[in-house]
Structure formats: C-alpha cells, structure tokens
Amino acid sequence: MSKTVLLEVKNGFGYLTINRPSALNALSSEVLKDLNLALDQIEASEDIRVVIVTGQGEKAFVAGADIKEMDQMSPIQAHEYMTYANDTFTRLSELTQPTISVLNGYALGGGLELALSTDIRIGYDKTMVGFPEVGLGIIPGFAGTQRMSRLIGTSKTKELIFTARMVKGQEAYDLGILNKLVAAEELLPAAEELAGAIMKNAPLAVEKAKHIIQVGSELPLKNAIRLETEAEALLFSTEDKVEGMRAFVEKRKAVFQRK
Ligand code: DAK
After folding, report:
1. Hey, what domains does the chain have and what are their CATH numbers?
2. A single Pfam family, by name (predicted)?
C-alpha cells in the first residue's frame, strides 16, 4: 500500500487513513490515486465489514483539494482532476460496506466532500467544516453542492457555500452534518462502537439497506418503495434471514455468515 493513503484491516474494520499530515492531508492527485488503490482492496476484501475513514495527525481530517496543485492547472487539467476525484468519491459512496468518517479536525472543501461521501460522520468540538471555495474563485467541485443539499437542505447549504464560513463541531452537529459529537479522545472509540453495533447485524441486510436508501433517494417514492419490496423479498432467500428469525424464536444470539 502506498504511503499517502493507508489501509489497515483489523477485527472486520478497514481503517482508511489519508496520510499527508504535512499538508493537512490535502487531496493531491497522488492522494486520489492512492485512495483508488485502497478502494480496489476494500472492494476485493471479504474481511472488511465497516470502513472507518480518518486523517493522519492531530489537526485535520482533510483540508481540501490541494490548492498548490490546483493553482497550476489548466481548465482541461482541472476537468480531468475533478472527474477523477468525483469518480473516486462515488466509488467510496457506493462501497457495499457501511462507511464512517472520523472528522478529527479540519474537513474543508474537498475534505468535507470526502466526508459527505461516507454514510456517517463523527466529530468533536474542534472539528471544523466548511466550503472555502468561493473565496478561491471556484465552487465546491467534488459534489458538495449536491451531497450537502441532500443532507441538510438547499437553504442551509447555500448559506454555507455563499459565506465560506467555517462551522465548529456543535453547530455542524446541530445542522445535521455530524451524526455524533463526542469528546476528542472518544473519536475513534465512538466510530468503533458504532461499527461494532453495525457488525452485530446480518451483513447482507445492512448492505441492502444502504443500497436502497441511496438509490431510493434518487427515485420517485412509489418506485423506491417497489425497490425496497424487491430487496426485502430477496433477503428472504438468505440463510442469514432464516438464522436471524430462528435465533429470535429460540431466544439466542444469531450467528450471521453473510449468506
Ligand atoms: N492545499 C494544499 N496545502 C494545504 C492545504 C490545501 N488545501 N491546506 C493546508 N495546506 C498546507 C499549508 O500550505 C501548509 O503547508 P506549508 O506552507 O507549511 O508547506 C500546511 O498545510 C499547514 O497549513 P497552515 O500553516 O495553513 O495551517 P494553519 O493551522 O495555519 O491553518 C487551515 C489551517 C486549514 C485554516 C489553512 O491551512 C487553510 O485555510 N487551508 C486551506 C483550506 C482550503 O481552502 N481548502 C481548499 C478548499 S477548496 C476542482 C477541484 C477541487 C475543488 C473544486 C474544483 N476542480 C479541479 C475544478 C475543491 C476545492 C477545495 O477543496
């Protein structure tokens, strides 16, 4: 594994760490390439049940796209970079496994967009989220205008993007950007606890739920409900469904096998 993105697999968790602390983990082309390689491994892995994304160091999750690199880009290169980054973030958002990001500091611009590509976000009082882009003469280019609007609504998103204001942990939580706000030392343990709670459940059911929530949110309600019904019927064909219901009847803990 390359050095700007680390992937460690332990106890069913895949720890994905953006590892470029000297630039506050800014997303250079190299980081994006390495992130793609890590996603290759996660997609191929049978051992990773939940992915936990974080940034190396004390200060930042990810402080955005690499401004020094962007400064040198022609419009064509910017287009290529943005397309590549968007494809990468889409891959992350479409992983079958649930994903949790731990916002251990600044999550700005592309860093916030990276976090928005995960399912759940955890932060603390010093977490700082924001979209500084308009102050640089650009707009959020890695789907922030869209993913943030879908998460917290268009009006609050407009305020955040138009003002480029940085929002601290408590406000980010109140806005609905963070799922959980915890003490600094609890950041990783809280993510692991959440991941552990997810892992107790039938993996195929969790994966299907993720897929239906994501795909369904893009569809008219009637079609989305139909999709849910089909997914549910399919789960009735799994061994884990039989095990889950039998365990309930027999008053014991279910043992799931992802089958
Ligand atoms: N890019 C490159 N280097 C960065 C960086 C970034 N985004 N953020 C920080 N660094 C580097 C700093 O340059 C510094 O490096 P040296 O100068 O020491 O070599 C080092 O990290 C430490 O940063 P600071 O010295 O600035 O640390 P402070 O504690 O004083 O300040 C800060 C922390 C997070 C407030 C500050 O670093 C900061 O404002 N950083 C920039 C935040 C930001 O504006 N992020 C970019 C958002 S824009 C598109 C592609 C992408 C996008 C849009 C379009 N296309 C291709 C079309 C999206 C863009 C964004 O993400």
Report:
1. 5-199 (3.90.226.10), 203-249 (1.10.12.10)
2. ECH_1
